[in-house]
Design goal:
The complex is a heterodimer of chains A (496) and B (483). Chain A contains 22 helices and 2 strands. Chain A has 496 residues and is mainly alpha-helical. Chain A folds into 2 domains: 145 residues; 345 residues, no CATH class. Helix content of chain A is 74%, strand content 3%. In chain A, helix 11 packs antiparallel against helix 12. Chain A has a two-stranded antiparallel ribbon. With 483 residues, chain B is mainly α. Chain B has one domain. Helices cover 78% and strands 1% of the residues of chain B. In chain B, helix 4 runs parallel beside helix 15, helix 5 runs antiparallel to helix 6 and helix 15 packs antiparallel against helix 18. Classes of the chains: A mainly alpha (496), B mainly alpha (483).
Chain lengths: 496, 483
């Protein structure tokens, strides 16, 4: 409880209320007020999530901070919220990134500032709702509502080809969501009238139905992750989105898909998950290897990081579908780490883009001469993206590889190639952009990052290093919930 | 039964008729400058009707005029919503009509006559009453479409509407006569019993059903009887388009349900199969054609076809869930449609019709609030939560899946994905493009308030849809299944 209000509801609605307040400041004459209000809102939004961390009971896999109210009585739909070890971390992560995004857009965004800030605040609240919802229709409402602010963000503040990108993003994800909706309603009808996720998890479903439900969920979640071959919207969306949009896409939106696998696909349809695990692993490995190679070929920095995101998310889905504790915990840690690393890389690219207005690698060279502080931060994040030990990325990747090698040596071998390809594409890009002689007059005119930018980078760097050196605080929150989930997945849900 | 007991269930319609006649006479004395007086009188009439409908409401199903007329919960709910809808139509269109010299007594009287026709349809329990209501509605609408006499497109639309409408009425009448031949009655309850007891001449019955269904499909505007819809929507003055595209859908829903469910429940296997074809064809053709439109009124015409197809899916499912969801869908559709056409009229000004998609370009820069309202309406039409349009689709999908038609549900969602594209395009134009004109948007405080209520209502009902859903379910339960 915060001031007598339920914690989770506050984490959802406080950013939304602030978003509306920011919107109310009107046009760009009040831009300063809008920025300050947005910062206050996002910082408060982060602060109110802290009770979740402090009051969290690590010894139980039950849902905590539960809120339950009737919502749509006719269909037995409830306003049912709660968190376990998995979702709690993502709520914190999301609220943290909202602060980062507000700071990152502080100076850069000049047109329609209030709408920009408001869109991010509203989205932050909605995403918290996605992670906290325990009723599947409530989940679905948040899940789709999330698309609306992102659609606007890419469409208004994005790059030259933004309209194509945002339409593609919206329609691609909507396709998956609609099939999931059909699956949810189908399960409502066989569960005897309940939309509770927990009831779905305890329900016996015959194999044929499980397979169809799994496929429907697959469309919804795989598009969001994104998995090969439904990943094609991501490079477009990432490249065209403004920096803040890319950060939220990489750090949060992609995690929502993997979270869906954890919360829906695996516990509700465990038999289908086992049956189709081979396909999932194959798709994950293709993403890791093939998309890694594609990343190597990119001339555009944002596209490169976008493909690297897909490749890294391949690790996540690989970890999930090998069904052991190493794999699953590794996958979740990889998700968190990837949020920090990819978010940071997009911010770094944003820093360069704000100054030079180009994302082409070829337009840079010798940046280290002009921006030494920036180059140091960029170096750290580039190393983290290649999975260097001591950075957060290493922990997750290592655990997933450990889990995989128990299943099949060659799977692990294929996945491990990412350590080479990842290093290759990241460090090669780094080398071409940062080192060497000053390439042109644009680079010549560069100024190093200012205090605000240093603050943003430093916050992320703390997490990237901290999580790499001492991952226990993250891992121990996950532990009980992951074990419980694995137990669920191990039990067949076929009717006897 | 004495006269009073007969009149009581129809009291609101009687009051409406008396008031329309009174307004017709009063309007002669009102100068063309003070038509606002007539307007206020019309609004007052609508208020009076709603008070009477509430006042004469009983918890039972009351039949009057020897079973020709029925007063039940469904009719009362639909009538209340139709008063509200009509009142909104008039508020939205006042300024628009004034600027075009159409703000006349005739318009308002015809609107009220059409309302009377709708309410007779809603309460009809007999083929003759149904037909009477339908013709009253249709004739008023034909005249309203043609009200703008010097406009070639409007005249063309009126002509088309009239000819095709008359054809549809003919089909309907022919079907009714066959049904009369097969069952010996025109009263829905008696027909239903006769069919259930077994009809001698099955062929006649089947042909009758097909003709009636074709007539219904014409009036609903579903494929393949949809040809009139785009032209009429496009050609009519926007105020009339708004009227055609909103409130009569309630009557069309009642009309369909009364005939098919109350009158021919035992033929459900025959007509639901036909409805599936109509529904799927409407969703397919409506969504695909809407993409190609540049005129927003035409786009909404095709979107209506789609929505009516989706509504039919609810009827196919049957049961409280099915009919309840279809009713909910219709009510929600009326709200969204009112808002969308209201927005077109808000953006129009003297001598300028904002009826192409390009007129919506850059609305966010001209008026962020209006753009936001339009975005809510478009998202609702596309069925994206948290707007009420989602729950309309949700409840219909639930009804379909419950009856085991899951593949049909998948077809429906795939078509709504296509539909999402052209609704999103409107949002795209408003938010992402630069405006073509910077003309100030002049809206009265009444229309400004109404569009805000309308847009936010779509959002609010999306956050709390429970009550309206329950009302719809309870009313169909009482009206269709418990007697």
């Amino acid at each position: 409880m915060i001031f007598g209000l339920p914690v989770i509801s506050v984490t959802i609605w406080l950013p939304i209320v602030f978003g509306i307040l920011v919107l109310a400041t009107g046009d760009d004459k009040n831009a300063r007020l809008a920025r300050i209000l947005a910062l206050v809102g996002s910082v408060l939004g982060l602060l109110v999530t802290l009770p979740l961390y402090i009051g969290f009971d690590k010894t139980t896999s039950n849902m905590q901070f539960v809120e339950m109210h009737d919502w749509i009585a006719r269909f037995n739909i409830h306003y049912h919220l709660g968190v376990d070890g998995i979702s709690m971390l993502f709520i914190l992560l999301n609220s943290f990134f909202t602060v980062i995004v507000v700071l990152a857009g502080w100076k850069v965004i000049e047109k329609r500032v209030a709408q920009y800030m408001a869109a991010f605040l509203v989205m932050s609240g909605i995403v918290n709702g996605v992670f906290a919802a325990l009723d599947s229709i409530l989940f679905y409402v948040f899940w789709e509502a999330m698309l609306i602010p992102m659609f606007i963000i890419i469409g208004i503040w994005g790059g030259p080809n933004r309209i194509y990108a945002t339409m593609k993003f919206f329609l691609y994800t909507l396709l998956g969501s609609l099939l999931m909706l059909v699956a949810l309603i189908y399960m409502y009808n066989i569960s005897g009238g309940s939309f509770e996720i927990i009831d779905f998890q305890h329900m016996m479903i015959p194999m044929s139905a499980q397979l169809l439900i799994f496929i429907a969920f697959f469309f919804a979640f795989a598009v969001k992750v994104p998995m090969f071959p439904v990943h094609t919207w991501l490079p477009d969306a990432h490249v065209e989105a403004p920096t803040g949009g890319s950060v939220v896409l990489a750090a949060i939106m992609l995690k929502v898909g993997a979270y869906g696998f954890l919360r829906f696909s695996m516990p509700i349809t465990p038999d289908a998950s086992h049956k189709l695990a081979g396909v999932m692993i194959a798709l994950s490995l293709i993403a890791i290897v093939y998309i890694g190679l594609v990343a190597l070929m990119q001339a555009d920095m944002k596209k490169l990081v976008a493909y690297s995101s897909i490749s890294h998310m391949g690790f996540v889905t690989l970890g999930l579908f090998i069904f052991n504790a190493y794999g699953m915990e590794g996958a979740i840690l990889q998700m968190i780490s990837h949020a920090f690393v990819a978010g940071a890389l997009f911010l770094c690219i944003g820093v360069l883009y704000d100054r030079v207005h180009s994302r082409k690698i070829a337009d840079y060279g010798g940046v280290a001469n002009k921006m030494p502080v920036f180059a140091a931060f960029f170096m750290l994040f580039a190393m983290a993206n290649s999975g260097l030990p001591g950075t957060s990325a290493f922990v997750g990747e290592f655990m997933v590889l450990m889990g995989t090698i128990k299943i099949n040596f060659w799977f692990a071998f294929a996945a491990a190639t990412t350590l080479i390809f990842g290093a290759a594409y990241t460090l090669w890009m780094y080398k071409r952009v940062i080192f060497g002689a000053v390439a042109n007059h644009h680079v010549e005119e560069l100024t190093d990052i200012n205090a605000r930018e240093i603050l943003i980078m430093a916050m992320l760097a703390v997490f990237v290093l901290g999580m790499g050196i001492y991952p226990l605080p993250f891992a121990e929150i996950l532990h009980v919930s992951v074990n419980d989930l694995l137990l669920h997945v191990a039990h067949s849900k076929l009717p006897i | 039964m004495n006269l009073l007991a007969n009149l009581l269930p129809a009291a609101a319609e009687v009051f409406l008729l008396v008031m329309v006649c009174a307004i017709l006479i009063v309007d002669l004395m009102v100068t063309s400058r003070s038509k606002i007086f007539t307007y206020m009188l019309v609004q007052f009439t609508l208020l009076g009707c709603s008070l009477i409908t509430v006042g004469t409401h009983t918890s039972q199903v009351v039949h009057a005029f020897n079973g020709m007329y029925v007063d039940d919960l469904m009719s009362d709910v639909l009538k209340m919503i139709s008063y509200l809808g009509m009142s909104m139509v008039l508020v939205y269109s006042r300024q628009y009509l004034m600027l075009r010299g159409l703000f006349t007594g005739e318009f308002m009287v015809l609107a009220l006559f059409s309302l009377l026709g709708m309410n007779v349809m809603i309460s009809a329990n007999h083929f003759l009453t149904l037909y009477l209501g339908l013709e009253l509605l249709s004739l008023s609408l034909y005249a309203m479409v043609a009200l703008q006499r010097d406009s070639a497109v409007a005249t063309e639309a009126a002509m088309k509407y009239f000819v095709l409408g008359a054809l549809a009425s003919g089909l309907l009448l022919y079907g009714m006569s066959m049904l009369y031949g097969a069952t010996g009655s025109l009263e829905l309850g008696v027909i239903s019993n006769a069919i259930a007891a077994g009809v001698h001449n099955k062929l006649l019955l089947t042909f009758g059903l097909v003709f009636i269904l074709s007539g219904l499909a014409f009036k609903l505007g579903v494929v393949p009887f949809h040809m009139w819809v785009p032209d009429v929507y496009h050609g009519s003055p926007t105020a009339v388009t708004m009227l055609i595209g909103s409130v009569p859908k309630l009557a069309a829903f009642a009309f369909t349900v009364r005939i098919l469910v109350e009158g021919m429940q035992s033929l459900v296997h025959d007509w639901s199969g036909m409805l599936i074809i109509l529904a799927v064809a409407s969703m397919a053709l409506g969504n695909l054609s809407a993409i190609a439109q540049t005129n927003i009124k035409r786009m909404f015409a095709y979107s209506t076809i789609t929505h009516m197809g989706f509504m039919l899916l609810g009827l196919i499912s049957g049961g409280i869930e099915g009919y309840g969801s279809a009713m909910f869908y219709t009510v929600v559709y009326m709200m969204m449609s009112l808002g969308a056409f209201g927005m077109i009229m808000l953006l129009s000004r003297a001598g300028f019709e904002a009826d192409t998609l390009n007129d919506f370009k850059g609305l966010n820069q001209r008026s962020p609030w209006l753009a936001f309202m339009m975005m809510l309406l478009m998202l609702s039409m596309a069925g994206i939560p948290p707007t009420v349009g989602f729950y309309a689709k949700f409840s219909v999908l639930n009804a379909i899946i419950q009856t085991g038609h899951t593949p049909l549900a998948i077809i429906a969602v795939l078509f709504s994905l296509i539909g999402a594209f052209y609704y999103l395009r409107v949002i795209k134009l408003m938010y992402f493009d630069a405006p073509e004109s910077h003309a100030p948007i002049s809206m009265g405080s009444d229309t400004g308030l109404l569009i805000s209520i309308n847009g936010l209502g779509v959002l609010f009902l999306g956050l709390a849809p429970s009550t309206l859903m329950s009302i719809c379910a309870v009313s169909v339960q009482q009206s269709l299944l418990l007697h």
